[in-house]
Amino acid sequence: MIVFLILVGFTMKFVWPPIAKALDDRAAKIAEGLAAADMAKSELSAANKRVEAELGQARNESAQRLADAERRAQAIVEE
């Protein structure tokens, strides 16, 4: 029984602190990774919104140019 208590005391004093520190460091790295993933996800969402806006603008411009070309063609045909 005394040997067991000595082993527990030794473990709690010398073995457990490095293990606990390693676990805490690992938990911090995981938390940083999750935060980075959330940030990347929000940046991706913002980039997708910008792309959709630019794509919509490009579609409008191309439709407008096509309509202008059709009007010009019609004007040329009528002359």
Description:
It contains one helix and no strands. The protein is mainly α. The longest helix is centred in the middle third of the chain and has 77 residues, at about 1-79. It has one helix spanning about 1-79. It has a domain at about 25-79.
Runs with pLDDT <50, length 5+?
A: none
Measured by DSSP, the beta-strand proportion falls in under 5%
Q: What is the approximate shape?
A: rod-shaped
Helix and strand element order: H
Task: Provide a compact summary of the structure.
The chain has about 80 residues and is mostly helical.
Primary descriptors:
79 residues; mainly alpha; 0% strand
Write the layout of secondary structure elements.
Elements: H1 2-78
